Amino acid sequence: MNFLEERILKDGQVREGDILKVDSFLNHQLDIALLDQIGEAFYEHFRGKNITRVLTVEASGIAIAVPTARRFGVPAVFAKKARSMNLDGDLYTSVVHSYTYNVDNVLTLSRRYIHADDNVLIVDDFMANGKAAQGLIDICGQAGAQVAGIGIAIEKGYQNGGRLLREAGYDLCSLAIVDQMQTDGTIRFRAQEFSGE
Amino acid sequence: MNFLEERILKDGQVREGDILKVDSFLNHQLDIALLDQIGEAFYEHFRGKNITRVLTVEASGIAIAVPTARRFGVPAVFAKKARSMNLDGDLYTSVVHSYTYNVDNVLTLSRRYIHADDNVLIVDDFMANGKAAQGLIDICGQAGAQVAGIGIAIEKGYQNGGRLLREAGYDLCSLAIVDQMQTDGTIRFRAQEFSGE
Prior knowledge:
The structure is a homodimer. In chain A, helix 2 packs across helix 3. Chain A is about 30% helix and about 35% strand. By secondary structure, chain A is an alpha/beta fold. Chain A is built from 5 helices and 11 strands. In chain A, the strands form 3 sheets. Chain A has a 6-stranded mixed β-sheet, sandwiched between helices. A two-stranded antiparallel sheet of chain A has the order 1-2. In chain A, strands 6-7 form a two-stranded antiparallel ribbon. The interface between A and B is large, with 36 and 37 residues. Strand 5 (about 75-80) of chain A pairs antiparallel with strand 3 of chain B.
């Protein structure tokens, strides 16, 4: 097991409704040392990819993107979830359905902050059906930028987001893939090999 | 001038409607080295305050809170702006009006992530009328926690949020206080002294 799988077993909680609560360290209270380890793990995996920009979506993705971008020495940029009055009209947009909240979100990103010569690393805290990642991929495509890889902290492996992205050929690194979880606290992770283990 | 004032003059843009756009480095695209400097400046100001927790509000506040919490070696926690289906019912809440979007937001924070023995440093990227900070202060009060200080990247000094908090006795450190700005690009900062300058 890696550091994140161990932490999920220690502090994660499985709740009714397919909810894995990790809000004591990942997406409400933030364990900064753990976030740095996540950034380091993504760096180990994607360091050969000439990453020029780390892209995520607000809000909890920002906590992953900042230490990751620091490690690569590149800017981070986060897509916003609704059209902001403070954003210029000159935006890339992509409509993404959120199953958590059962609403359509419009992801928006200023055209100034992603370019055709970018090698983009997309990061986020969670992936289930992969809709948010696909929205960010869509935006990269609109910009003509290359998606060099996708780094996810926790993937729900029993949903199809990760499978579809891997089948499409993306370099997807999920630090913990939950293949099964039960409200009695049982969590089964997919076996993976990480460099440095 | 300090590093942030210099950056605002270099890359900030004043727009109609009292908007200071700093989205090329602070709240859309993120300059990680600059965020680290902000965290360091808050550490210099508040290092004697025995800070145990850094508190902010999603989304762009997270980018300020993460490097600040790293520098202090404490957890960060961010309030969410609406009741989330993934949050427990056991929440502190505070209603905050957003003038930017003309809506009432409910700030929510799990009772598990702030305690009566905490010395809290509240941080955010912007302060205008101070409503978000007041909502976070309200939540600290509900928890019985001490507000040890408030660190803001950019304060609009011609609005009354900062004045009211200083008059109420809070230790408010705003790294750049804009006293006047015009759409021709003129920005006047309030003179302040910072340690290390």
